[in-house]
Amino acid sequence: MRVFLHSLAWKQDPKGFKTRIDQFLAICARHKIVPMFVFFDDCWNKTALEGKQPIPKPGVHNSGWLQDPGDPASKESLNYPFLEKYVTDILSSFGKDKRVLMWDLNNEPGNSGKGDSTIPLLTNVIKWARAARPEQPITIGLWRWELEKLNAIQVANSDVITYHSYEEPNWHERTINLLKIYDRPIICTEYMARTRNSRFSNILPLLKKKNVGAINWGFVDGKTNTKYAWDTPVASGGEPAEWFHDIFRQDGTPYRREETELIRKLNARP
């Protein structure tokens, strides 16, 4: 399970924030789930505020998702001392915790039009994370090949290679073959967008064959609205013709039972 943290939640209540992480890890351990935590994120809404969050916009994918530390906040070096304290505190508290799989330092660096402007913060985050000496691996997931400078930094500083691909099988396989040259463990930390022909039925068997770990995006139809596609909102908030992400309806029944049966089969679950 890949779990996104947020620096403002830590800033508001550092002790309570860490208590909730510990509680969450205890729940995960009971269910034999080992999560990776994501520190920063360049995706979606540019500004964040503490406190009660807006309700989701009907039919809009990730309408409430927040960048961290935001824009232009991520470009302002005056924020670095606070962000360093945040990263250091979390890694000092959980960097030796066996219940944590690894640390994903920045989700999709350069997204939302940031491009190479995110490099100064990313290089500092890498420095802060290494200085904290966590026992778990660190990673920065690859996601866009045109960002060559960022890609080079991400690969050079990832103990485990992680990447995102919402492409159909032939393009996804090319990505895997390219990343195999680094001779490191590989985990696909985002895939599965049905309307782009990235499906459990055609991608998950490929990942298993290639010995690549797999974390799809989306689980339950909920307030993230990720059953709707990125660029195809449904203004009424009604059911899309085909779900983009997500596996279960709100009542716990599968969107498509053949998908959950395949997931169980490929993971050797009864």
In short:
With 270 residues, this protein is α/β, with parallel strands linked by helices. It is 34% helix and 10% strand.
Structure description:
The chain has a single domain, classed as Alpha-Beta Barrel (TIM Barrel), CATH 3.20.20.80. The protein contains eight helices and seven strands, in the order E-H-H-E-H-E-H-E-H-E-H-E-H-E-H. Strands 1-2-3-4 form a four-stranded parallel sheet, covered by helices on one side. Helix 4 (119-132) links the parallel strand 3 (102-107) and strand 4 (138-139). The chain is globular and about 50 Å long. The model has no long low-confidence stretch (mean pLDDT 97). The protein has helices at residues 7-12, 14-30, 80-94, 119-132, 148-156, 169-179, 200-209, 257-266, and strands at residues 2-4, 36-41, 102-107, 138-139, 161-164, 186-190, 213-214. With 270 residues, it is of the alpha/beta class. Keywords: Glycosidase, Hydrolase. This is Cellulase family glycosylhydrolase. Residues 60-217 form the Glycoside hydrolase family domain. InterPro entries: GH, Glyco_hydro_5. Belongs to the glycosyl hydrolase 5 (cellulase A) family.
Tally of DSSP helical segments: 8
First and last CA, distance: 20 Å
Order of neighbouring strands in the sheet with most strands: 1-2-3-4
Strands, total number: 7
Residues in helices, as a percent range:
25-40%
Largest sheet: 4 strands, parallel
Class computed from helices, strands and strand pairing = alpha/beta
The CATH class label is: Alpha Beta
Tally of discrete structural domains: 1
Strand content: 5-15%
Shape: globular
The averaged pLDDT comes out at 97
Provide the CATH topology. TIM Barrel
Return the string of H and E elements: EHHEHEHEHEHEHEH
Output the radius of gyration: 18 Å
Give the uncertain stretches in residue-range form: none
* CATH superfamily annotation: Glycosidases
CATH architecture: Alpha-Beta Barrel
InterPro entries: GH (IPR017853), Glyco_hydro_5 (IPR001547)
Keywords: Glycosidase, Hydrolase
Protein name: Cellulase family glycosylhydrolase
Domain Glycoside hydrolase family: 60-217
